[in-house]
Structures are given as C-alpha cells and as structure tokens.
Write a structure and sequence with these properties.
Blueprint: H1 10-19, H2 34-46, E1 79-82, H3 98-103, H4 105-111, E2 115-118, H5 145-157, E3 161-167, H6 176-185, E4 207-208, E5 216-218, E6 241-243, H7 258-273, E7 278-282, H8 292-309, E8 314-317, H9 323-329, E9 336-337, H10 348-353, H11 359-376, H12 394-397, H13 402-412, E10 420-422, H14 472-476, H15 482-495, H16 498-501, E11 503-506, E12 515-522, E13 525-532, E14 538-541, H17 546-549, E15 553-557, E16 566-568, E17 571-574, E18 579-582
Parallel strand pairs: 1-2, 1-10, 2-3, 3-7, 7-8, 8-9
Antiparallel strand pairs: 4-6, 5-6, 11-12, 12-13, 13-18, 14-17, 15-18, 16-17
Helix pairs in contact: 1-4, 7-8, 9-11, 13-15
The chain binds calcium ion (2 copies).
C-alpha cells in the first residue's frame, strides 16, 4: 500500500476557511523552514477575519499547532463514529440525515479527524437500522442515494475517508428475502426438503424443522424460544423455525450459502461504486456461534473481494470479546478489529484516565496488543476506542470528571492504529443507564435548546438526560473545553505519523508506575512518547537512556491549555496527565 504525504497543513487551511483558523504558537524547540514560516504568516493574516458564525478568530479553535502537520494518506486514520439519526438534521423533520452530516464535515475535519464511520444507513424498520430491508439503498429518513454521493464527494474533498456499517449476520424480518422464504416454507411440509430452485431465499437463512438452540423462532414470527415445540404459533404456522440470535425480528443469514455470496458481492460492488472506502463489520462473532474459523473465513473472503475492487479498501470488525479472541480474528487477514480490551468503563484507557491503571501497565499492554495482533496479521491496524454506541459514555464511566475524561482521550490518541471517537465524546456528552437509546442522544451543537440542526431523541430514549458540559459552539471558544483538548490531541497525532504506525517498544529504565516512555519506529523515523497517568507532575531523567537521551522535545499535550512540558538537562517534566513526543 503506497504511503505518501498529501496534506501537510490541510487541516489548518480548512480551519481558516470556515472558522477563522488556528494560530500556531511559538515553540522554542522547533526550527522552522521558510515554507513553514510562510504558512504561519498566512494563518496569522487569516486570524484577523471574523468567521460567519460570529465567533472571532481569536476565540475560535484555540492555539494548538506546535509543529507542522504530517498527515499520511493511508488506512491509518482518526475516525469519528456518527449515528446519523442523532447528528444533524438538515431539513427540520427532527431526524438527522446525510445532508446534515455533509454540512458538518468541515467541523469533523477541523477537529482533526480524517475518517468517519457512518452507523447503518440502509432502509430499515428500526431507529438504529442494524436490520436492513435493502442493502443497496439509503433509508428515506436519512435522504437519498444522491445525498449519499454528495456526502462522499465532500468528505473526499476534505481528505476524509468514509466507512459504512454492514450487518450481514442478519437482515430485518421485513427483508424481501426473508418474507419470500417464509411464504414459500409455509407451503413445505415438515420433513420434506425445500426446493431451492423454487425459492433460493429459503437457503439464505437458517431454517430447520427443529430449533437447535435457544434463539429459534417459528416462521410466522411468533416467538417460540428453545425446544419448547410450542404448537401455538398462530396463523400461517408451519413446522419451520428460523434462527434469530439477536431478536426474532432479525433472522440470521446462513453465510455458507453460495447464492448469498453473489448478493454480498453485489452489495460490495454497489457501495464501492458509490465511493465507500471501507466497511465496519457488525457482529462477526455471531456469524456462526463459537466458530472462529468459519467467521474469520467469511471476513477474509469478503475483504479479499472488496480489495480486488479497490486495493485501498478498509475493513474494521466488531469482535466484542476478550483480547485473545480478538487476536484470533486477526487470522482473517482483515485490517482491523476494535480493541475492546482497551475500551469501555472497565477497560485500560478509561481506568488509566482515572489514574486507576498505571502508565507502565498501559505501555506493556501496547506491546502485548502488537505481539498478539500481528501474530494473526502482520499488517494489522489496531482500532482502539473509549466507548461506542453500545456502551455507556465516557462521561458516565468517569463521573463527569473533565480532567479524567481528557486524560482518557489523550491516552487513546497515543495508541497505535486508527482511534475511533464516538460523536459527542469530544464534548463530554453523557448517556443514561444501559438502555441503548440513551447512549445515542442528539448531538449538542449549542447549549441553546433550539440550536439549528438539533435532532429529536431516538424513540424510546428517556427524557431529562442533561449533559454536564456545554455544546460545540460554546466549547469551541473555551480553551479549557474537552473539545479543544481533543483537538490538541488529534493535532499531536496528525503531527507525528509514527504514533499510529510505529513499532512499539518500552524503555524499561524510564518506565515505572505512573510514568512510561515508549519508542515508536516507523520506516526510518523514531520517536519517543512519554506519558504520565498520575494526578501530579512527574519528572523523568532521560539522560541515562541511550535511545531517548539524544532526542529533543517535539510536541506535547497537557490537560490544561496553558500547561507546559519541558526538557532541560535531560530532565523531562510532565504535568499531571501530560503526553510528550520526543524525536
Ligand atoms: Ca432530517
Ligand atoms: Ca449468526
């Protein structure tokens, strides 16, 4: 896969275009070239402008740039996960839509993301749309395929790649495949073989005369769980059962069916032709329960097909399981698995953000991931995250403690691979309890209740869930906001491509308890990343460490916008929760 630098300063230019730009701060450690200085001067000129939204340049997008951007155009990305329904409503019907996402792509780019994951966009009877009735269309609540094309065009023009959610473990019970199959099977007696020439769709799902597990349902849709053989199954009853491992309205597909693969290839062709850069694969653990070999073969085969159509095609899979099982799924030779080991309230990142998991342990975990994941796929790209649409939000996991929330986000941003940030995480939005709808609440664009584009909450979400933190508009002008911290963290990542791509080693003599120094080597380039997971300043004497002692401080990230990391006489001073990059 070719790697090239395409967009140095791209993000700065975008910021200038829409919000008045970000200023570079003078950094005594940096030695700038003429071109860089010129770029700085251009930014300074633009800073005098006042952006259309009335936020003056001085207030907006506070200084973050210490070094030049070095963004590589490959499959290592900074991803932003978007639930379209709750993101931005462009036409006032209360439901977020594709045109709304398109309107907000400048915001996404200005934050420092260069990839988005769109949760399902296919037609579906549910608000979450994880059960498709048509894999080659856009749900009319979200817009049209032309809207989708415009979204793709704008995203690509901003250097943002787009991946879409694809659930192939199951369809909707309203999918024509399933409806036709059921209609046919109602005419087929128990014990006799269905004629797949008469109805090929009967082979697409797991149908049987006897339920073989506890998630099987009668064909007529009346839930009959397990081996109860309940004869009371209502009108249209037949002897046929189907598997629905998540829900009786989500019949499981049989991914060993070759005719179904013809459909899957058509689906891939369709979206690749519409410019999609990758798929987020939903629930591969459940393609066939407890059959890792089968499931990884499905992922591998589908990925190979997609890559044959677009060599840069990306795939990231949801294997919500222990680290060892995630590692097994890298045997599929597909690029990425979400790193559930580091994620969620009890995961390493959030705990470390809360100083309940130590830097030294986190550094060891980075090496462990590298060993275990590369064993299955040497080309693996880790996909770390804090929480997603299925988890309580970071704010809840960390009791709305903004410093801890920032530290967790900062640690996410020093991990290898492609980090994923769930929409609203960057403004500290909260969820409530375990109900899914409460984890997918409307994006808060402004603290004003009637802010333009604000969606209504998903049906079934509770009322009265109030985020402790302000909306995007207010946070943009607050240097100490979570949003501006995330922006600085993404900036650091976009300045240092080794963070995502480098081979990790721990510097043992500089790593203990709440302080760690790791080295990341990528191509001919080597950086050190030092981090402090404590709530106090830590000084690390780097002078005795061969690999690090000759490096200079290149950039850093502190919880407070005015925080300073220094390197003087071999003494690296890291304020509480700080990250430093040396090269
Ligand atoms: Ca709408
Ligand atoms: Ca299944």
């Amino acid at each position: 896969m070719k790697k090239r630098i395409v967009s140095i300063l791209l993000i700065s230019v975008l910021a200038v275009a829409s919000l008045g730009g970000c200023t570079s701060v003078n950094n005594p450690e940096s030695t700038k070239t003429g071109a860089e200085n010129e770029a700085d001067n251009n930014e300074a000129d633009d800073n005098e402008a006042v952006a259309e939204n009335g936020i003056s340049a001085e207030d907006a997008w506070l200084p973050v740039g210490q070094q030049e951007l070095n963004i590589i155009d490959d499959n290592y990305r900074n991803y932003y996960e978007i639930f379209v329904h709750s993101f931005y409503d462009s036409d006032g019907d209360g439901i977020g839509d594709l045109n709304g996402v398109t309107e907000k792509l400048d915001y996404v780019a200005e934050m420092g993301f260069n990839g988005i994951w769109l949760m399902p966009v296919f037609p579906s009877p549910t608000y979450h749309k994880y059960d498709a009735t048509d894999y080659m269309a856009v749900d009319e609540q979200y817009g049209t395929i032309e809207d989708f094309d415009r979204l793709m065009e704008k995203a690509h023009s901003l250097g943002i790649r787009v991946i879409i959610d694809l659930a192939i473990n199951h369809t909707s019970s309203q999918h024509p495949w399933f409806k036709e199959a059921c209609e046919y099977l109602r005419t087929v007696e128990a014990g006799s073989e269905p004629d797949y020439n008469e109805c090929p769709y009967a082979a697409y799902y797991h149908f049987a005369n006897e339920p073989t597990g506890n998630t099987w349902y009668h064909v007529n849709g009346t839930a009959v769980i397990g081996n109860s053989n309940n004869p009371e199954s209502g009108p249209g009853s037949t002897a046929w059962y189907y598997e629905g491992s998540f829900w009786d309205q989500m019949p499981d597909l049989d991914l060993s069916c070759e005719e179904l693969w013809t459909e899957l290839e058509k689906i891939a062709d369709f979206w690749i032709e519409h410019g999609v850069d990758g798929f987020r694969m939903d629930a591969p653990l459940h393609y066939e329960e407890n059959r890792t070999d089968f499931n990884t073969a499905v992922l591998g085969r589908f990925y190979e097909y997609c890559v044959s159509k677009n060599p840069d095609f990306y795939m990231v899979s949801e294997v919500w399981a222990a680290e060892g099982i995630i590692a097994d799924y890298y045997g599929s030779k597909t690029p990425s698995m979400f790193n559930f080991d580091a994620a969620q309230a009890e995961g390493k990142l959030i705990k470390a953000g809360n100083s309940k998991y130590k830097a030294a342990n986190l550094a060891e975990a980075f090496v462990l991931y590298q060993e275990d994941f590369s064993a299955g796929n040497p080309e693996y790209i880790d996909a770390p995250f804090l929480t997603n649409h299925d988890n309580p939000r970071v704010a809840n996991a960390l009791n709305n403690n903004p410093e801890a929330m920032k530290r967790a986000g900062g640690l996410l941003m020093i991990m290898g691979g492609s980090p994923f940030v769930y929409y609203g995480e960057e403004i500290g939005m909260c969820s409530s309890g375990t109900k899914d709808e409460n984890k997918r609440l409307p994006m808060i664009w402004s603290s004003e209740t009637e802010a333009e584009g604000t969606t209504r909450k998903p049906e079934g979400a509770d009322s009265g869930i109030v985020s402790k933190f302000a909306g995007v508009e207010e946070q943009i002008s607050d240097p100490e906001s979570i949003l501006n911290y995330y922006r600085r963290a993404l900036r650091l990542r976009n300045e240092n491509p080794e963070i995502a791509r480098g081979y990790v080693t721990v510097v043992p003599e500089l790593t203990a308890e709440n302080a760690a120094v790791i080295v990341k080597t990528w191509n001919e380039s080597r950086i050190a990343v030092a981090f402090n997971t404590s709530k106090e300043e830590i000084v690390i004497d780097v002078s005795g460490a061969e690999t690090v002692s000759k490096m200079e401080l290149y950039g850093y990230l502190t919880v407070e916008s005015t925080g300073k990391v220094t390197l003087e006489d071999g003494r690296l001073t890291l304020p509480a929760g700080a990250v430093a990059v040396l090269r």
